[in-house]
Amino acid sequence: MNYLFSLFDSWPFIVKLNLILSILFFSLAIWLIGSVYYIRYTKTIMNIKRRELEKTLLDFISSYLFDENFDKSSELTKLKKTHINTEFNLKITIKQLLIFNENLKGASTEILKELFMFLGLYEYVVSDLKSRAWEKKARALHVFSQLYIKAPEEVISPLINDQRLEVRQQAVLYILNLSETNPLEFLNTLQDELTLWQQIYMEHSLKNSFKGEIPNFSQWTSHPMSSVVRFSIRMMSEFNQFQNIPILMTLIDHNEESVRKAAIHSLSKMGHIDLIPKLISKFKNETPVIKKEILKTINHIGSYNHLLALEVKEITENKSLYTYYSSLEQYFKSTLSIKLNMGDLTVKEAS
Amino acid sequence: MDINFHQITEITSWLFFSYGLFICTGYFFSAIFSLIELRDYKKRHNFEDEVALLKSSNLPQISVLAPAYNEEVNAVENVRSLLTLDYPSFEIIIINDGSTDGTLQILLDTFDMVLEAMPYYEAIPTKKVRGVYVSKQNAYKNLKIIDKENGGKADALNAGINISQHPKICCIDVDCVLERDALLKLIRPFLNNEKKVIASGGIIRIANNCIIEDGRIIEVKLPNSFAARAQILEYFRAFLMGRMAWSKIDGLLLISGAFGMFDKETVIDVGGYSTKTVGEDMELLVRMRRMMQEKNIAYTVGFIPDPLCWTEVPQDWKVLYRQRTRWTRGTIETLLTHKRLLFNPKYKILGLLSAPYWVFFEWLAPIIEFFGLLYFTMLLAMGQIDWLIVGIFFSLVYSFSILFSLTALYFEEFSFQQYKKPKYMLILIGTALLEPFLYHPFVMWAAIKGNIDFLRGKKSWGEMSRKGLTNRDYRKDKPKK
User: What is the ipTM, given to two decimal places?
Assistant: First the structure.
């Protein structure tokens, strides 16, 4: 042994360093092999436990919901004692309740809420909501919004402007699902622009989860955030708020291109044909993006005559736009020829 | 100043050692960043509901572009698989790049396609487009086939971009197998970002030997050949460790040509794919990033680590060799085209980290390694070798090499665990132990040959023959007329 140490001491520094690093790397490699198998082992065990618990919960929740002879009180106590005792089991239980909730409606969901409370899951999720870890906060918000369970107001409010986008997103969905009056009131205090992702989920929630009266979206058309204005414009057509057409008509003169585009798109979707003469007059001085939107609108709700009314020389320089114009022209001509063969009167109008 | 032979060898040894240490440190940090990003990704996408996305009419529409050259074995099956992707609104454009086999005819017959007189603007110049075909059947209304003169993959993709109708383009290899939700996941970065997203890429997985039915991966199996298994480890290292880390610091320079999504407007702004390089995928992203930085527009590039795209890798050593020489040429061409980036603070991470990484780790590493071996041979010939020191040096290099591969395996196990059978892990660990002897010298030599080819001015792609991922041969069941 002493010989080895003296040999080691006699080596230059670089060789000594190499040897030490080699031993370290080999040890780490062996540790990693062990870790790979350890992860596999623990994942397998966890999956077995998960399946067993899921089966138990499936039977329990089904009986709790639908079996009249089921002794709810004693079985609940038993389940709490035997199964709802670790964080892992709590998470599985919540997930099972969410699955049931997704597939059930009416009185059954109320019973699920009751079960959620009896199992002591409310306290657990609230503690997650107060946690410092963003993923716990986001998950807690998700659970509450899916089960339509109200969380303490003072905990929710600051989360709308949380640093993490995921928390903000879940907070928005929570408010949309649980508010009874104006679900979009939070837009007034919003500090960050809405991403398209948030807008899609907000729309989905408004359409599928929110049970109250859809607000009038015109209240946000002068919001300082462009994404909020665009979202409101889009929602006006999604929820057929025809009373807002005059406001939308003013927005096609908005100084921001994306807002003008959204307004034209919404009006087109609402089939507001009076929009077209105004668009034709604006066409000359518009940006290429808006010009394309105008062409799309003519394609959607206009006619060949409207297309002919545009000043083509304005777009010949922009080849992409001109190609679109040409394909539209071709489309109208082919449509006309079909109609002509059928003896449709609209042909006379167009010619 | 007198420098003797011993001093020269010591200085040289220190230089090689410093380079090795530099590389190891880079890989160490890359592993740390990847782990952070993987953990974060798993947390971020824990409770997302895809139904809302599928129901939405406001998701950006996507044009899927798949160039096909002599792909008659796989084409039909792959188009069928593409047609069943989960996404509210997308079109599929197959670009037949002057195939000399029956690729076009088999597609036209199977999907009942007819020539369509469709005006389109050639925003990016390409070889002549002979025609655009659309299907007579409503079931295939979102399928278009472009028939054009042969001009290479980049030219074919450019033709697809010109004809595509939608604001986002997803460029794929026609022989790839995509997961059903691939588009839904790849579009995420475009939706969930406060900055403009110019591109997003995903992880490429190896499909050799996997069981595929109806264009979907049914069972993930390990390939039988050592070359393919070594590539699995290589892809783990490249994607789960390398690109995840670059994604964390927003320094990605490459989105695989096999599967990537781009903002069409930005692609057209930079002039589309370059036909002058064989590394068109990397070159395009570098050019796009460079333009955004020069215009001073806030932007980002997304990366999704989920296994979304499966591809067949070469099992034949000759084909692998051609692929690797081509990759090396592509890397050199891109780095030289954009040499302005190197150490240029104006380009921030791109200039100060990404480009130097590609120069020192990807381009120069095999060259330095090769010279290291030459140097060792020279010392051996001169009888200047101390075998104890060689043994210790070698054990350092070998231990680091297997440590790196095992870390990648650990990441795979931690994140997606695609290889379910325990024996697969054992085989992969065995592959990791043997790879430095049996595979690495081969790819190093291919990279050296790539450098030589570059210096000789070689420009061609070379044939990439494939076995095909499906057992059914669609050439035999053409519809009778």
Answer: 0.85
